[in-house]
Amino acid sequence: MPIFTQNEVNLHTHSFYCGHGTGEISDYVHAAVDGKRLKVLGFSEHCQTPDNYYPDRMRFETFETYMETVKSFCSGGEENEGLRVLLGAECDWNSHYVPYYSYLKQRLGFSYLIGSVHYCQDRETGRLLYLGKILEIGPYLGSYVKDYTDMLSSGLFLFGCHPDLFCYHTEWNKDLEMAASEIIDCARQYNMVLEVNGQGCLKKHVKSDGSTRYPYPVPEFWAMVREAGVRVCVNSDAHNPIHLNSPLAYSFAVENNLESLLVKWNVSEDGISIAH
Fold first, then answer.
1. What is the pLDDT of residues 224-241, one digit of tens each?
2. How far is 117 from 92, CA to CA, in rounded Å?
3. Whole-angstrom distance between the N-terminal and C-terminal Cα of the chain?
4. What value does the mean pLDDT take over residues 170-187?
């Protein structure tokens, strides 16, 4: 069974199907081939539910087309030029949809699922609020941590995506540190991998002292990951083919001394798993 390093694998990839990305599936395959670095490319479109619960996502009616399009590249061929293509999905945690996510994994030929928390629920209206638009995370921090740790402990997912997304608009403080500690302790307890996410590296926030930072990944969070010895993966989370081969997530991992924690991947006909 071949083993691949983080530099050879990208498992967090989107396209126009997600509703806020650009490019066809074939555009990402061609970008990976042209970049000559990746040997495994996993597509992980945001998973819509049968009741179209999540806003700003592809409609459920389109999900089958997405699956079939990715599967057409999974069998290889001249267009792939040796690149392994895998069908995956990025699933927002909601315990109500666990049976559906399990069905995707067990019955519909998905090689893997990855877990995320993008939304918190407004206490007054019940509306889903995207984390990147919540300027004051304090009132929602507890629900985010609970959702994220429930996701990590569910056993459904290959890794947890952008675990420090809750830091988006808030500079590091004691409350964020406590939230990070709960997430990292849970990842360690359940032997889960946490993702350094390259999409956040494409954005910059100005801090109170005038310097700039990524909204995520956040160095303070990953220093705690390093201290805890939790395993790490890196992905581009590309929403445009030009970002697929971006080295920013890997560079962040190296600069923050996470190299020794980076996992390697086994890829087989049955899917993908962590190499031990």
1. 999 999 999 999 999 999
2. 5
3. 12
4. 97
Residue 39's contacts (CB-CB under 8 Å, 6 or more residues apart) are 4, 8, 9, 82, 83, 84
Q: How far apart are CA 238 and CA 29, in angstroms?
A: 12
Structure tokens at 205: 């926030």
Report the 10 Å Cβ neighbour count for 7: 13
Q: 58-67, 125-134, 177-186 — which one is most confidently predicted on average?
A: 177-186
CATH H superfamily, domain 3-274? Metal-dependent hydrolases (3.20.20.140)
Structure letter (DSSP) for residue 112: E
For the full predicted model, state whether its pTM sits above 0.70: yes
Domain segments of the chain: what residues? 3-274
